[in-house]
Structure formats: structure tokens, C-alpha cells
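Example S7 (C-alpha cells).
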């Protein structure tokens, strides 16, 4: 998913005050989707940064 795709999807959400929950997408895990992970922070690493010379990324971090 790209930033543009994420923004387009989030723009469709009527209540912008809702928290963001992340579910593990691993059906081989016996605890599949049993833990609530809540988005806590967003980090942006620009293309050209050390270790990201060819492609930057957006990192979403969270926890229980």
C-alpha cells in the first residue's frame, strides 16, 4: 500500500477521531488476530537517506 492509497482510504472514514487498530495478517499463527495493536506513531524515511538510497518508506509503529 502506498501513502496515496492510505490517504484515499482514510478520507472515506466519516469519524476521523477513531483510533487505528492493526491486525496481524498471518493465518498460520494460532493467535491470529487475537491481539489488539494500536497505532502509536508514524515515521517517514525519505528516499536518499542512509540505508534508503533507492526507496524511502513510511513506518507505522504501535503496540498493545
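Recovered sequence:
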Amino acid at each position: 500500500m502506498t501513502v496515496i492509497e492510505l490517504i484515499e482510504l482514510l478520507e472515506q472514514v466519516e469519524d476521523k477521531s477513531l483510533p487505528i487498530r492493526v491486525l496481524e495478517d498471518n493465518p498460520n499463527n494460532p493467535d491470529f488476530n487475537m491481539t489488539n495493536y494500536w497505532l502509536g506513531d508514524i515515521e517517514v524515511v525519505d528516499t536518499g537517506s542512509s540505508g534508503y538510497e533507492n526507496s524511502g518508506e513510511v513506518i507505522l509503529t504501535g503496540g498493545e
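Notes on this example. The beta strands are 21-22, 37-45, 57-63.
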